Amino acid sequence: MTTKFALLSEADELVTSLYLRTEGQPIVSIQRGLKELSSALTKDTVIAGVATTGSARYLAGVLVHADLVKNEISCQAAAAVHFCPEVATVIEIGGQDSKIIIIRNGSVADMAMNTVCAAGTGSFLDQQAQRMNIPIHNLGKEALKSTKPAQISGRCAVFAETDMIHRQQMGSKRDDIISGLCQALVRNYLNSVAVGKDIMPIVVFQGGVALNQGMVQALEKALGFPVAVPPQPGISGAIGAALLVHDDFKSKEKASSFDGFNIAEADLRASSFECNKCAVSCEISQVLHGDNVLARWGGECDMWEEGISI
């Protein structure tokens, strides 16, 4: 998993960004990102608004006093429309999940997500790159060298890896195996996440996997037409979140509640517990600073809700 930061100017231009490995420690990753971001800014920089998104958006939201917490579909769609107003389909493949967003007249008309099968996500390519001792950023370059992509199953990560090992044992070239892996991931995506969806051009390809030129090539071959890739596809969700909070502030003219730089050095930890106050048995998440509870959320009622304060 990764943690991304995107800082936009008043004109919605990207000023700076961060792309960090979460390494199973989202709080540490958020604090590290805030510290790096703070040190890169001038003292007169004013943060007008902050939004969070992604699988840890609520956790990140309470840590940074976010003004807006939005789901990934909304943020990916906002980033795609900003990059290409005529976009009709957004294909987003990240490290942990993948999505398809159908956009008509600038608004989300349909969507689907995959959060189960690794064969349709970037983590699958990451694992195979490690197995072949290839830096992940070189995977696309290797794939483009292929003249005869290996036939590899796209049904699931287990079958694909078995096929890959077999191809290696049969003496297939490494670039052909990598190209075959890219094509397998695309087939899995189109036959699961995108099945039944009306994929129309212009297609915008987002997510960290869009940096892999082998994946772009495989996707264009499967679709039969070119796809557009934004300049910063790996942080498209973060960019979309920033765009949405900017629009929200322009319409409401309010002051930001952001004070997140203060928690960059704080001793924070996250935990959860099961509430037994009723039959629902909600799992409650919480963030603590020492022995003090900063925030709790996740219940069906507001019994455990507590605001953040440092």
Description:
With 310 residues, the chain is an alpha+beta fold. The chain folds into 3 domains: 2-74 and 238-265, Nucleotidyltransferase, domain 5, CATH 3.30.420; 85-229, Nucleotidyltransferase, domain 5 (2-Layer Sandwich), CATH 3.30.420; 267-310, no CATH class. It is 35% helix and 20% strand. It has helices at residues 26-40, 57-64, 72-83, 122-131, 139-144, 157-169, 174-191, 213-223, 236-252; strands at 2-8, 14-21, 51-52, 68-69, 89-93, 98-104, 107-114, 203-206, 268-274, 283-289, 292-297. A hairpin with an 8-residue loop joins strand 9 and strand 10. The model has no long low-confidence stretch (mean pLDDT 88).
Looking at the structure, the CATH topology of the largest domain is Nucleotidyltransferase, domain 5
Tell me the name of the CATH class of the largest domain: Alpha Beta
Order of helices and strands: EEHEHEHEEEHHHHEHHEEE
Distance between the termini: 27 Å
Shape: globular
Uncertain ranges: none
Query: How is the largest sheet built, in terms of strand order?
Result: 7-6-5-8
- Largest β sheet strand count, sense and barrel closure: 4 strands, mixed
Number of strands: 11
**CATH homologous superfamily caption of the largest domain:** ATPase, nucleotide binding domain
Supply the helix-strand structural class: alpha+beta
Secondary structure topology:
Layout: E1 2-8, E2 14-21, H1 26-40, E3 51-52, H2 57-64, E4 68-69, H3 72-83, E5 89-93, E6 98-104, E7 107-114, H4 122-131, H5 139-144, H6 157-169, H7 174-191, E8 203-206, H8 213-223, H9 236-252, E9 268-274, E10 283-289, E11 292-297
Parallel strand pairs: 3-4, 5-8
Antiparallel strand pairs: 1-2, 5-6, 6-7, 9-10, 10-11
